[in-house]
Recover the amino acids of this structure.
């Protein structure tokens, strides 16, 4: 039953994680609350945007051919036939050859005109406008379908909406949009040494830091974390917590106590109520990770050391979450940096090293994975692939940012 | 009154923006809602963490000197004197010389012991444990104050709290924490061409995209945006909107119509009720930006083109907001990339070019600043400093990510 003697590689663990992930569930939300959410539909332009030919400068609407050859010394002379107001096309205003009309930025290009000359390149003398440089066809004009053409896909399903996307949704008149429902992720803490945040730890006890950290990360990523408290290492209380969480959650994380007994208990309870798919990953830190399923609900057993739990969350659990959100892959922020120190590694396991960034140099933050300070004092992770014996100081690396 | 004829450089505009920023106002929030908020206090360790000497592996607690010289072929023989339970120190369990005790990960190091040998490097024979390699003093032990010492500063004021910080707060028993109150930022849209998102634009009209985009960005950054609707280009309605917004907001953004008339109106109304400090910045896009103050409330006039408004928000308004949050500088995500194309620029103005990232190469996204699609199809901005005539293809640049 236990596969711990045969740990799988990270690729297989990630594939398992995505394979057991439930599909996303769409829900409509107001467009102005949708930033950061993952789109479940293609957003299509229902009309041309901006919808009419507009000037992008303050100037004069002209026929471009009337300006050909004009210069400071020999300006073209045009007769000014009116003024465009903002927000409404001027009735009967036509710019025929030899004529022009004043147009503010954003104004509707009048009939007959095909370009705009900036006011800075003109001089006014009564009804006559002196044009001091030529413009080409369409210059300083935003054409009616230049931003988006009716029927075009503006935003694709699977995209995490940005603030500027919210602007585009407004421009198309979308007040609501279909996004993936936030997955509900249950967190059960185990370990006889754990006490709640509100308690004063007795001898041998520590407060439960991992559950808060996991919940905060999941919440930021787009999930609704649900706490099920701290469960003692007893089969029955463990099963009770699981049976409460199962109907309420889309997936469950068991934030492990750190001892082997505790891991065995987690694997035993998952196996007793469902199936253990992975028990052990060639990943450091994070080897004693469990991936299982009870009914159709994914259940993960995470290691107890905070740094290990965090690495497993990012490397193994996020692929599940991102599938549940309809993303093609996890949305991780990365940056390129130069390694400030050499990193030895054991071949045969994928290793993640905490690093601190200083002026684009990534310095390894060594330290036991039980230390919270190494997580707080680092900016992200550098991956050493399984087939690699280490990375040399000075080489370029991608840093997965917290 | 108008300083438009003497635009200031970006450094002066940013200095003005920070200078007029109100100070942050602290508020207590539950620690588990504090991720992303900016801390207003130094968080101090009120006790040692973890608080007792713990094992970081499953193994045997020993006196390290008893293992000196041990090997596979000549193991050290120790008498196993008991077992450490999780969550409580064993009464009376003492590891004297020649003895050891089983200890799970996270267990309390028993009296007398000073190191832990991993179970993998031992063999059990009844009450005797064969130790097959030596350990040094403190090996596999997390000392009582190794994570944080009582009195140490764990998190510094001004820090934007991460999920792992939330974990540390839990570890110290902090259930609430003082963070900067979210500044309330009013947004007034002006421009006779603008209609609300819910309207169908008539001829010459467009929907107000900028207000939604600005609000979404501000909300993500940690503000509470408040909409005051669309105001027509008339002095009185403009003043009415301002006098409604002033008592309710910590700062006000006037999302400009795009014409010169509209900019003049904005400057006129700010000057008529307070003072215009900056009118025009040597910034592209974003030149026609206004910075002013009515009473003690900062009021910004932003350009009407969406891309210009976005650049001004990031470059000029964010320094104000970050001051209001107690941050030393704006928290902008950046990444290093190689420029995929040469960027010419005019000396004497700071220019921001939208770029699309592909495999660490930043390709410029050219296009009129009135186009929303250039914002949606780009990943961030590259800055060309004012003293520079452009950047060569192939050079390394920092990209400010959306």
């Amino acid at each position: 039953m236990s596969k711990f003697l045969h740990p799988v590689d990270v690729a297989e663990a990630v594939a398992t994680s995505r394979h057991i992930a439930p599909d996303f569930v769409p829900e409509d939300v107001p467009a102005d609350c949708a930033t950061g959410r993952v789109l479940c539909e293609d957003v299509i332009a229902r009309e041309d945007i901006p919808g009419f030919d507009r000037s992008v400068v303050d100037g004069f609407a002209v026929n471009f051919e009337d300006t050909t050859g004009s210069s400071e010394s020999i300006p073209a002379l045009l007769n000014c036939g009116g003024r465009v107001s903002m927000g409404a096309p001027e009735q009967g205003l036509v710019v025929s050859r030899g004529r022009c009309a004043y147009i503010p930025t954003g104004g509707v290009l009048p009939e007959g005109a095909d370009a705009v000359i900036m006011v800075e390149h003109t001089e006014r003398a009564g009804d006559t406008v002196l044009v001091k440089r030529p413009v080409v066809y369409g210059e300083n004009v935003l054409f009616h379908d230049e931003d988006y053409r009716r029927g075009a896909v503006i935003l694709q399903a699977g995209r995490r909406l940005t603030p500027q996307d919210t602007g585009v949704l407004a421009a198309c008149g979308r007040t609501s949009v279909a996004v993936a429902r936030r997955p509900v992720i249950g967190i059960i803490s185990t370990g006889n040494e754990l006490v709640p945040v509100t308690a004063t730890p007795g001898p041998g006890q520590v407060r439960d830091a991992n559950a808060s950290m996991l919940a905060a990360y999941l919440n930021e990523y787009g999930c609704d974390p649900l706490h099920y408290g701290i469960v003692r290492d007893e089969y029955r209380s463990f099963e009770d917590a699981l049976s409460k969480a199962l109907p309420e959650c889309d997936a469950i994380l068991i934030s492990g106590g750190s001892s082997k007994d505790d891991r065995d208990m987690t694997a035993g309870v998952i196996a007793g109520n469902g199936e253990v798919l992975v028990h052990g990953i060639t990943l450091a830190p994070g080897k004693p990770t469990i991936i299982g399923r009870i009914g159709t609900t994914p259940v993960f057993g995470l290691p107890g050391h905070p740094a290990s739990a965090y690495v497993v969350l990012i490397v193994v659990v996020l692929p599940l979450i991102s599938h549940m959100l309809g993303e093609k892959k996890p949305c991780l922020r990365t940056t390129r940096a130069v390694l400030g120190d050499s990193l030895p590694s054991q071949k045969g396991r994928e290793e993640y090293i905490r690093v601190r960034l200083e002026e684009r140099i990534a310095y390894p933050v060594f330290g036991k994975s039980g230390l919270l300070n190494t997580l707080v004092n680092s900016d992200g992770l550098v991956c050493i692939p399984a087939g690699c014996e280490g990375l040399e100081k000075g080489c370029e690396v991608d840093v997965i940012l917290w």
Summary: Residues 306-324 of chain B form the longest helix (19 residues).
